[in-house]
Structures are given as structure tokens and as C-alpha cells.
Please model this.
Amino acid sequence: MDSAIKLKHKIASADNFIAQGKYLHAIQLYERMLVEFPQNQEVYYNLAQLYELSGNFNSSFNLLSKYLESNPNDVDMQLYYGQLLFKHEEWERAIEVFTKLVPEEKPLSQYFLGHAYLMIRDLEMSRISFLSFISLDADRELVFEAFVRLAKIELEMKDFEQALKYAKQSEIFFSSNWELYFIYANCYLQLGMDAHAITAIEKAIKLNPQPSELYELAGKIYLRTGDNTRAESNFKKYIELNESVSSETYSQLADACFKAKKIDSALDYYELALKIDPGNKSALMGVQNIHRNKKSSVSKDA
Model:
């Protein structure tokens, strides 16, 4: 029997096992095929997928690594291996694989590189990779995502003007994404453009009311603009959606209550903030102000 036909029949038999959920049988069959057809890409690819499907991730990684040692020019398998490592959060190893690929041949490698570098907090290399991906006139939807990531990187690096520019470039590709308006709101808040910040955060919440971080940012914006009632309600919504809340957030909620003349509530929240972080200067100052005001009121009454 011709070897190609023989291989086709064996793969069909393995597929039959897979359809029945008999992964171990399929793996054993593919491992035998590997001995018989040691350079066949399809056998390596299918066996790697089966190892992953059965939860044997290291076997999948080792198999693909072994194949690529003998076939270093197989860019499709290189990309697949990198994506598999990326999927399982093997960031350093994924970076090592993706950097072997020529960007012009596999533009997608640059997109994954950008994300992998972002996950290990190498913001500069992440930025370079995302910009490289965009320059290669790649997939429209992924270009939108790349611009959003670039905007987030600039936010972290506190270059709010540049973050705003990247956000506006992403809007060309997709204008109805909550994350985009969340970035806008963040940028506008940092740049002192409060009215724009309010419009952006309200649009983000309208597009997707689920993410808790929207309410925390909304609370900060309203607190800054003096709308203490809305600041209070948004901070409370954020706290309601999170099990772990920072001392800073409780302190800001306390500030909103204090400014709205809800003194007892303000004191409670300042004390909560100090319970989490006894060194929170804003909360310490808030408690001191409340006690000072109370003493002043007692003295006047006397």
C-alpha cells in the first residue's frame, strides 16, 4: 500500500477514536505513526493537539520543540507552537519562539509578542511589537486591539497625550467598545479635561455595565468635579462588585461622604481605609478633620 494512503487510513482510524472520546487510543496510534512517519508535519501537529486535549501540556510542548529542531524553517508550526505556549501562559518560552519568526512572513507573531511582553511587564518591547504588527497592515480587528493595548501601555507610562492618540486611532477601526471609552475617560481625567472624562465614562458604562473598574473611575471623576452624590454611588457600586478593595478607594468614598456632609459615614469609611492601610495619609487627615470639626462644634455649643 502506498505510504500516503496508509497514513491517511491510520489518521482516519485515530479520528474515529477521537470522535468516541478515546483519546488514549488515538494517542497510542499517533505515537506509532510517529515512528513510521518521523518527518510528517500532520502527525506531529495532530499528536500535539491530542496531548493538549488530554491535559498533557509538557508532552505537547516537547513534541513540537523536537519537531522544530529538525524543521526550523517550518514557520507555520513555529507560529502554532508559539500560540500554544502563549495559550498556557508560558510567556518567556512563547517570546523565544515568536522572535525566531520573520515579522513580514508571520505578522501575527508580532501581535502575540506584544501581549507576551506585556504580561512580563516589558512595556517598551511590548510597544515595539504592537507597532511592528500595525505597520504590517495586519488583521483589522487585531489592529484595533493593538492600538488599545498601546494606549494602555502609555497610560501606565503616564504619557497621557500619547495614550489619547492611540485610543483615537483605535476608534477608526471600532468605535463601540467600552474599553476604548474607559481609556478616554482615564486620559481626560489625567489631563484635567473633566467634562470630556464624564462623557467618556458614561458612554463606557452604557456600552458595558459589568466591569467594576468603570465605577471606580467614575467615582474618581465625579469626586473631582464636585458631584459627591454620584461619586459616592459609583464607589459603592465598585465596592459591591469586588471582594478586595483598596484603602485608597475607601478613603475616596469617605471624601465624597464628607463633602456631602455625611460625617458619620465618612468616618466609618476613613476607619475602614486605615484598617487596610494604617499609613494612609489621606484617611488619617480625614479622621483628624472630622474630630477637629466635632470638637469645634462642642466648643461653640458650650
Observations:
- The first helix runs from residue 3 to 19.
